[in-house]
Amino acid sequence: MIERVAAVLCAAAMTVAVPAAAQTSVPPFSSLTVFGDSLVDAGNIRKLGLGADPALGYVDGRFTNGYDYTDLLSFAMYGTPTVASLNGGSNFAYGGARATPTTPIPDALEQVALYKAVLDKGGKVDPNGLYVLNFGGNDVFAAVKGADAGVSDPDAFLRAAAQNYAAAVDALNKLGARNILLTGFPVATEGTPLAYSIKAEIALGEELAKLKLAADTKLMRYSYLDFFGRVQANPAAFGLPAPLILPEDKKPLTTCQGAGAFPACAGYFSFDGTHPTAAIHQALFNDINSKFGFGLSAVPEPATWAMLLLGFATVGATLRRDRRRRVVA
Q1: What's the pLDDT tens digit per position in 69-117?
Q2: What is the pLDDT of residues 221-269, one digit of tens each?
Q3: Separation of CA 185 from chain center
Q4: 271, 262 in Cβ contact below 8 A?
Q5: How far is 208 from 192, CA to CA, in rounded Å?
Q6: How far apart are CA 61 and CA 58, in angstroms?
Q7: Could you tell me which of 210, 184, 178 has the C-alpha nearest to residue 199?
Q8: How far apart are CA 280 and CA 267, in angstroms?
Q9: Hey, what's the torsion of the CAs at 306, 248, 185, 227, to 10 degrees?
Q10: Which residues make beta-bridge pairs with 180?
């Protein structure tokens, strides 16, 4: 069996030259902790048997065709992707999570509480670590749906989302987190009126202004709306093909999944109509790295990761077949 696995590994290596995982000699942060929704879920929802079905092209529990931007931050700093909290890691994000406590899925404050529960078992907050908060899309989506999503007053609902989002920042600050990266409200899906996201963003700014953070807390606020606008206006500036294939409501062929173009998804902005492709996540990583001066080295291109993951999947399939044969024998 060992010889068979070695042969498969060799074949995978010949398929794609895998670069060493990019890693700075001195990472700007000593750890990475993630809270959020499906844009940064590393497999918590999949661990529960929900969503991110690999048969639909989702990779390794992520809601895209590869790794997300927090994984790439982790790769660049430590040489490994983030690990879901249900698998013992420090990524507490859950697909479907809202900033508001309006679903059974852990919301922003509940995820911070889950992190605190881990600390209460003997852990310690890393003041030199980076803490990422990535919420809002599902709240915007619910506000757009209105009564169908249990929202009677969209404006009040988005204000509550902004308040809860800011409260999660405050809770982390009080625990001792000192480097907090906060993404804003994105446009939740194709066809979503931009006005909802803009209202939420304005409300979030007002709520954050009310916080009294520790003097040495660095709050890094990143705007999804600004990023998505720049990418769509000039994709070539981010190393993306121009023009990008943008998602259009009720036109599945304008998404990578709808067109059956995964795992590569070359030229597509959206993987499934809601989540960006791995290439967009790579652009996100590059933009965040540049904006906040992290000084991180580049990470491999999404296509490289896709081929590498397919190679690992092949190895896994071979191991499973060998185990079954041994049991039968």
Answers
A1: 999 999 999 999 999 999 999 999 999 999 999 999 999 999 999 999 9
A2: 999 999 999 999 999 999 999 999 999 988 999 999 999 999 999 999 9
A3: 14
A4: yes
A5: 25
A6: 7
A7: 184
A8: 10
A9: 60
A10: 131, 219
